Amino acid sequence: MSMGRAVVLCVLWCTAAATQEAFVNSIPVPYPPRQDLYEFNWTVEHWETMFLYNKQREAGTPVIIDSLTGAYSKRTYNGSTKSCELADMTEEEIGQVTTADGYHRRTTLINKQFPGPTIIVWKGAQVAIHVTNKLIQEGVSIHWHGITQQNTPWMDGVGSVSQCPINPGEGFTYRFIASEGGTHWWHAHLGTFRTDGLYGALIVLEDDNSLEAPLPVFGEEFVMLVHDWQREDSQETYLRVEWEATRFSHGYGDINTCRTRLDQADGTDIGPVHFTSGLINGKGRSYDDNDNAENRFVPLEKFSVVGNKTYRFRVISAAMVFPFRVSVDQHELTLVATDGNMIREQRAESFIINTGERYDFYITTNQPAGNYWIRADTIELHEDGDAVTRQHHTEAILHYEEAPDVEPTSQRKSCTDDNDNCTVVNCPFRQYGDASIECLPVHELRSPVNQSVPIPESADRFEEHFINFHFAGSDKNPGQRSSVNGHRFVPPSSPPQVTGDEGLMPCTDELCGGEKYCDCSYHVTITPGNVVQMVLYNMGSGAGLAGTAHPVHIHGHHFYVLDMGFPEYESNGRYKSQNPDIDCGTSDRCNMKRWLDQAWEGGNKPGLNLLDPPQKDTVIVPVGGYVVVRFTADNPGWWFVHCHIEIHQVEGMAMMIREGTDGQMNPPPPGFPTCGEFDWSSEEFERAKKGYSSFWSHTLSVAAGGGIGAAVGFIVGLALGIICCTLVRP
């Protein structure tokens, strides 16, 4: 790293530490000094992309990037001519603009930063974030994705589960220990604010001697957040899914265009919305049907390097729906961590990252000095049944400082040479459709050292839960809705982590038993101290070719990925039928089923990796398949479990784990906010109209009727009575 760049990074880091307002895309090496406490002051507010903010006036004006010249202009009003005009902008003003994909769009941000502030702290430190909600009409909450919140379950940041939403005008302070090292992130966890821009990186630094395996000496570490971006509020996108109107998502009045269906390599659906543009660290471009940039002057993120050094990239997916295949032209990737957990070094041409996941890799800058594309491509192979010639994509630039500062013309590695196959890590299917591409599923990654995978001491200390993440419909409504074991999640009216189970909508046997579909606050109970094995599967109705692979996030734990089962495929890799290991029988919905071979019960399934499995907190569940994960129930609390595709989670593909009894859970601190429902009867209303305390109203009216003397006498007598009671109290 050059001396000038080191100074810039130091200034950025110091500024971030002082004001807590900055997004930074890199971490200086050596790391910043250790602190015991990190404090941040955040304001949640709406803002607009392609706007110039006037801090003094607390206002802004739209910005335009000329698609022919690249010139930036701000819109102004000329009072003399009574017309709107374009004015030139300074370099300082240009640097303040959040461009996204070059279009104007309302966002929800922290401190008007997109992405939000980068949190960089040391493992074991206390982290305090003071949040003020300046939105007009919406509550918010913020989740610290990757932090298990041992003994602080009410700091997990899930609105309606671990806390009440932070209402407009309110403040809330999050405090927790940065207990898990590695690459994590923070994001909104109420409604659809996350994909409106309310997210950022959370990097927990570790000493080299605390790592399970040594890493190379890095010239610098980079932070890279990828995101599929729409040009409308995420709530609008969600409502189209809820209303089954996504085919018309290009515009309800556009009678010539329908959303096309995008299929991945196994023929299954990628998601319910169209792709508009992708962003890397809040920057990207949109492309037309001929793959031409609609405005080639919209800036892209740039990572500057020098030759013959090694650089680490910490990649985080903040996507709404789409998985991305990440690669760097002409540079081999070496993966070293996933979801903050170290893995044995795995070389790859690329990896697939799903929303919620994190992957760390490094590259060596051993290519000729130049500029190279960093690619994040979507993974569809077909569009409405026809083969695609180019996936949707977004890019950043790897810039060698010795080279001219121009856009790359590089090409990605060709995967057609039989002697030089491409390895793609974390495929949600078994084969990519191209014999020269080797898929390496996530369960085939290995930890760098043997792991202490929990083994039950006795049969009664082991529990196994089968949980189906799929689409289901009721007998009355055939629409396929996001659900878990046939339950469409209804958020509690008050957070159970604060008020217990009083706010839950119950899942009764009458409404939800057996194969029934129902709406309720679905949860399973696990016992502290037990070894818990969960079989997350994706089968039954709403699976098959119409299904979608689901990235499932379990709060409160990092789990071992012991095995993964895929469906049966045709010879061309296309989905054929669901995996037979789970006994769906004749059941259409296949809820809460078990192993077909009963000898596999009790943790005895063959093929479980109990030696060196990877650890994660978010894992992809393939269509027609399953994933076996295991952890120890050592963190009492109410923990959210959900598909991390935001639309699916909001629609109802979620549940809770109740780990322990209320008495085993650490209670929230004094004064912790509560909330809930309120209802009252007509009779209660009539009593309220008359005044609830007839004694006080009668006494005061008598005193008032007796004049000032009577009133004074009443008050003096009341005071003396209180004093006497206090004196004689034992």
From TrEMBL:
PROSITE patterns, alphabetized: MULTICOPPER_OXIDASE1 (PS00079), MULTICOPPER_OXIDASE2 (PS00080)
Annotated region described as Disordered, given as residue ranges: 476-502
Keyword annotations from UniProtKB, A to Z: Copper, Membrane, Metal-binding, Oxidoreductase, Signal, Transmembrane, Transmembrane helix
Residues making up the signal peptide according to the UniProt record: 1-18
Metal-binding is among the record's keywords: yes
Alphabetized SUPFAM superfamilies for the sequence: Cupredoxins
Any one GO molecular function term: ferroxidase activity
EC number: 1.16.3.1
PANTHER family: FI03373P-RELATED, MULTI-COPPER OXIDASE
Protein name as it appears in the record: ferroxidase
Source organism (scientific name): Branchiostoma lanceolatum (Common lancelet)
Gene from which the chain derives: Hypp8779
